Amino acid sequence: MNLFLKHAWPTSVLSAVMAVCAGLGASQVSAQSSASGYSVGKVGELPKAERILFLGDSITADGKYIEYLETIVLATTDKRYDMINLGLASETVSGLSENGHAEGKFPRPNLHERLVRALEKTKPQLIVACYGMNDGIYHPYRDDRFVKFVAGVQVMRDRSWDRKIAITHLTPPVFDPLPIKDKVLPAGRNTYPQPFERYNSVLDRYTLWMNGKARRTGWRVVDVHTVMADYLEEKRKTDPEFTLAKDGVHPNAEGHWVMAQPVLASWGVKHDYKLEDLTTPEGRLGKLYAVVAERQQLMKAAWLSEVGHKRPGVKDGLPLEEAQQKAAALTTEIEAILKGGSAVLAGSPAPEAPVPTAVPVPEPATGAPMAVPPAVEPAPAPAPEPAAPPMPVAVAPAPAPVVEPQAAPMVAVAPASQPEPAPAPEPAPAPPAATPEAAPSLSLPPAPMVAAATLVKAEAVPLSAPVPPPALKNPGVIPLPVGTVDATSEPTGPALFPGRRSKWQGFDRYDFDVNGPTVTVVAPKTAAKGKPWVWHGEFFGHKPDPDVALLEKGFHIAYMRVSDMLGSPPAVKHWNAFYAVLTKQYGFNKKPALVGLSRGGLYCYNWAIANPDKVACIYGDAPVCDFKSWPGGKGKGKGDAKNWQLVMDLWGFKDEAEALAFKGNPVDNLEGLAKRKVPIIHVFGDSDDIVPWQENTGLVAERYRKLGAPIELIAKAGVGHHPHGLQDSTPIVEFILKHAASPSRR
């Protein structure tokens, strides 16, 4: 069952099907060029297309969700689409194949072997593509496989761009280990002749990336992965053995029905039909569905043979012309059914619907979900589940200093400040939780970094390998979330970086990709000598005053969105790639100032420890410096069970004992930074019970000073994990200016 995309939707919400296309609002999509730069209309409206081509693996080849889509569209609208199913069993978009696939009979077919032929022969106006299930080859997560998936998807988009074809992506369906629990393998193996037991966490990661592309660069994405995860969770409340796929991979009829609903909703199709209305002879659409399915299967086989492929064992279809003649007779029969049964076929919106909506993906900081308008009139939303109360903050005019364990007195004790809104987890479910660490997150991490079996036709791909960036040639991208850009100000002058250009706090902001993850760079009006810069670990945009002050001094601000990777080895690799781009291609200073807020401390410290000669200074704000403290909760802190499991996955620990014995946390590895006397400053609340300062900041300070290195501490008496920062950010700004404006040659 999906561990990380779980969301406890109330029953009343589960009963309403709403239009969902992750991260995209209808008004926003209408302003952007959908797919690879070409639009077939707004989200929430029927596509302005005549022919729709469906591409995918065996789940699409099965075709039931396409048959359901066509049947419902015929029954509820006047639109007559030519829906062509070219799904091919075993196929990937990445070109990868596990060693010994199909008992060694053949490697997985690669979409790109037939893609151009398919587009030239079918000439669609819209592609609906569903890939990902096979692309991780049922192994634990690994960067080179993810990069292959990213590259394959983007090449597919380039091919569609070249032919002015729009494209909608479906996130991969859910992998369910429950029905095959005796046939899956745990983390830590070198080979995987059977699926990795937490393979769904790999698909979670792919889903996160696709949803991020929808938010940031305007891709049209329908998140069936989240829909299925929520549906499974709800069903298992009453039936713990419930599944949508007996083999863990291929959805049954109900699973395909669940997949179809968010697509219909994204097209604005309103209906009150249930699965049995189509699949039983007495169902309202039983006769119509039977003929639609017959026509679909006939034409699918014919088109597969016409286009050609390299997958053995697929039965040849009729010659295309002969199949089209037979299909014409079935079309006549379909029209007769529609004309004769209008009273029966006229589905109408109803308060009950068969599947839950997909979870809208909120943006960081604001927590406001960006979902498409509902395709049905939704019932009034129930009151949100009560969030955890905010951490207590004592406000006192003259707070007493705190005493750190076995260390020199604090440099400063900051006056307690009024509570401020905390940054939402990145990304986070609605309603926003009180703290980043306490809240469950919708974003999904990669699974363990462990060795995998030799791949067939899949050479290793370095993280520095170029990935085709269609966003750079696609002029239509959605606006960034409200609150993160200046809506009334447009950038002027030549662009300094690729990607989406906007304004942030009066400065030019650029959002683009580096080997998959989206990165943000905010440029000063005039760069200071040596191009100094600040690099955020997490929660970019929260407490922006120091950033604004440094931008005015000529600093650049940078952030890489690898959310919920917790500073793990895969995250450090992504950071290395971003660092190389900024320093080698754009001439940034070799030593940035690192800013680690909350869990961002793990990102900053782990990268700094791996690259101690590349750091000007570190500013930590209630930073996590030991994952045993948070999210482990093995000391005084509350802990976070979901993120603790995430640690297990990200580092590939076999069990909790191995995680607790791990000596690779920042608190354990300060020697390299201390040898180079890297200056550090921490701001923290002495009543923090989310990231207890004694187990994180206090321990770092004690050990760093024993190593003879400089660290300054600013305590906020009576304050918990929130609010972050200082009311007057001058000490932070001055610290960074002193040490990063002209970094010393340490």
Shape: elongated
Overall pLDDT level: 79
Portion of residues within helices? 25-40%
Largest sheet, spatial ordering of strands: 6-15-14-13-12-10-11-9-8-7
Strand percentage, roughly? 5-15%
What structural class do helix, strand and pairing data support? Answer: alpha/beta
Distance between the termini: 49 Å
The number of distinct β-strands equals 15
Return residue spans where pLDDT drops below 50 for at least 5 consecutive residues: 1-37, 346-413, 415-488
Major sheet size, sense and barrel closure: 10 strands, mixed
Number of helices: 23
Taking Cα atoms only, what radius of gyration do you get, to the nearest Å? 27 Å
Question: How would you describe this structure in keywords?
Answer:
23 helices, 10-stranded mixed β-sheet, alpha/beta, 32% helix, 5-stranded parallel β-sheet
Summarize the structure.
With 746 residues, the chain is of the alpha/beta class. The chain contains 23 helices and 15 strands.
Chart the SSEs and their pairings.
Layout: H1 11-14, H2 26-31, H3 34-37, E1 51-56, H4 58-62, H5 64-76, E2 82-85, H6 115-122, E3 126-130, H7 143-162, E4 166-170, H8 199-217, E5 220-222, H9 224-235, H10 253-266, H11 275-279, H12 286-307, H13 320-340, H14 342-345, E6 412-414, H15 470-473, E7 500-504, E8 507-513, E9 518-523, E10 533-536, H16 545-552, E11 556-560, H17 569-585, E12 593-597, H18 600-610, E13 617-621, H19 641-651, H20 656-660, H21 671-675, E14 680-685, H22 697-706, E15 711-716, H23 730-740
Parallel strand pairs: 1-2, 1-3, 3-4, 4-5, 6-15, 10-11, 10-12, 12-13, 13-14, 14-15
Antiparallel strand pairs: 7-8, 8-9, 9-11
Helix pairs in contact: 5-10, 5-12, 9-10, 12-13, 16-23, 17-18
